[in-house]
Amino acid sequence: MPKTRxxxxxxxxxxxxxxxxxxxxxxxxxxxxxxAMADELRKKMRESNVDYMVAKKTLISxxxxxxxxxxxxxxxxxxxSVAFGMEDEIAPARALGEIAKTTPVKLVAxxxxxxxxxxxxxxxxxxxxxxxxxxxxxxxxxxxxxxxFVRALNAIREAxxxxxxx
Length: 166
Hints:
CATH topology of the largest domain: Alpha-Beta Plaits
Largest sheet: 5 strands, antiparallel
CATH architecture of the largest domain: 2-Layer Sandwich
Distance between the termini: 89 Å
Order of helices and strands: HEHEHEHEEHH
Oligomer: single chain
Mean pLDDT: 87
Strand content: 15-25%
Strand order of the largest sheet: 2-3-1-4-5
Shape: elongated
C-alpha cells in the first residue's frame, strides 16, 4: 500500500532530525538482503549503538536537502538505507563494513563532520578500529617505554644482588 503524504513527510522529518543530530551517517545499498540477513544487520546496528533506517531514495534525498547537506543521493547506486552514528563517528561505517563481509550490503557514501565522503573513503573508514580500541593502543604505546625501563632496572638489580646458594 502506498504511503500517504503525511507518512512521507513524517519519514522525511525523522531522517532530517537524525541527520542533524548525528555525528556522521553512512548510505548503504541493501539490495539482495534476505529477511534473516536484515535481522542480523539490525542486531549488529543495535550492538554498535547505531540508528538504522531504510527509506526510498526520493525521501532520503529530500531529508538530506532539508538537513542542509549537499549530497546527490539520487546518483548513488542501489536501494539506499542510512546508518546514523550518534556517539561514535566511525561506528556506522564500521558496523556496515562488518556486515558487508558476509552479506550483499555495499557501502555507498557518507557524511562525516558535515563533509561528503565517497565510497572509497567510507570503506577506508570502516576498516579503522573503534574509539575504545584506538585509546587502548595509545595507552599501550605510552606505557611501553615505561615498562621496558622498569624491566631494565629490575635486571640490573638482580645482576648486582649476590645469588643465594641453596
